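Feature request, filed as a ticket because there's no other form

It would be nice if the structure record came with a short human-readable summary line next to the tokens. Right now we just get the raw output. Example of a typical job, pasted below so the devs can see what we mean:
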Amino acid sequence: MSRPRIVIVGAGFAGYRAARVLSRLTRHKADITLLNPTDYFLYLPLLPQVAAGILEPRRVTVSLTGTLPDVRLVLGEADAVDLDGHTVRYTGPEGDGGTLPFDRLILAAGSVNKLLPIPGVAEHAHGFRGLPEALYLRDHVTRQMELAAAADDPASCSARCTFVVVGAGYTGTEVAAQGKLFTDSQVRRRPLRAGTRPRWLLLDIAERVLPEMDEKLSRTADRVLRQRGVEVRMGTSVKEATHRGVLLTDGEFVDTRTLVWCVGVRPDPLAESLELPLEKGRLLVDPYLRVPGRSELFAAGDAAAVPDLENPGAYTPMTAQHAWRQGKAVAHNVAASLGLGERRVYRHRDLGFVVDLGGVKAAANPLGIPLSGVAAGAVTRGYHLAAMPGNRVRVAADWLLDAVLPRQAVQLGLVRSWSVPLDTASPELARVPSGPEKAETPGEESRAHTGDGSGPADRIQDPDAARHPEPPGPVKQPDLPEGHEPPQPSSDAPAVHKPRPADPTAPAPPKPGSPAPSEGDS
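Raw output as currently delivered:
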């Protein structure tokens, strides 16, 4: 008799833990396959420290094959699921396709950047959901500071050292806090023009920073940001983005070459493609994380709308903490469906949150106890070390080195602007010169190559950026200088990105002064 086949789509917090727990529960009584675009699990909460030059990129990644020896890893992205045929169709990293048969399927595909219909944002902003985006941001910020220091024009210098972060949720708050320390450290070694300092703006239409968290955490974070020099603009967002800067909803135009988009997330489009009942793009599941009417299908993490048994009528929020716990619960329930153990409902108890604000500063409320300053910093880093499934010694070593040595502010040039578009369903993957998206939207194909075929050409975000080898960001096609028009991609180029369908639930852009939902992380 053949062993049951379990396929897990996605190796985020939910998928990775489900694979690890299932491997232990089944003890070679089932074939477990993990389908993921990369060969690593990404510890997303420490990504801002990669962008700020504190941690090396591999410190926040954990090898899937190295930590899941009894799980078969298949590199690729799920394109479609045939529930009646019990198969998952996927595309590999080199464009080759395949299918995976299953008896049990766990959908843990995670989430992607949430876009709002604001003019210019998709062309000029960059998200912060994957390692390529963090690497790009680190290079980009370093480059802007170096160009600002060498600029003769005061206006150009000021624009280059101005950085706008939209979304004051968990991610945006940490990016702004860590980024300000990063640029200040560069200025100490290479001063800017007299009277010029790096300027960081944190925008959100919510009333306070970290709107989804405890008010005491919010006040602590707000105080630290303002003391550090970050301009916290609550009740304000971006009305339009251009190649010269951003127009805010309060009417102010900010000259900048950097727009970081941290306006929460939305579920991976794969969940919507199943044509099953959804709750704001998430698959509806029962308390056992099983999709009603589909005994073979389970879902966890950001892709699942899990009933919150502690708050009847509500669903658990899309957080790493919930995804990690749901991964364990869904593993037990899948094993129970195969006759191994008993199933269990997903029930959680809030253990608190931690927000690393850089240096020795943090905001935390472990077990409901509000902390700030050095104590919160110690708890925050201790929590991350305990929560990481690997690389603890390496991460601690990088923290120690950062405390005693100056940061290395150099451009590696590994990730170009065009390779990390904001509007993508694959933030964990960087585009490659021969790999456009599987199904480009009109005009998208023009982002991939240079006109002479010699290599990729970035979109230009500021008028004089054509003089630099790595322009800072994208613009629309008409803004490209003559001779830089990229050709159409070849038909045989391997596809490495999933197409991003339009979000039918996306709200219209808010009018200045009108109430709107928070832009913080979901």
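Something like this underneath would help us a lot:
The first helix runs from residue 13 to 26.
The chain is about 25% helix and 20% strand.
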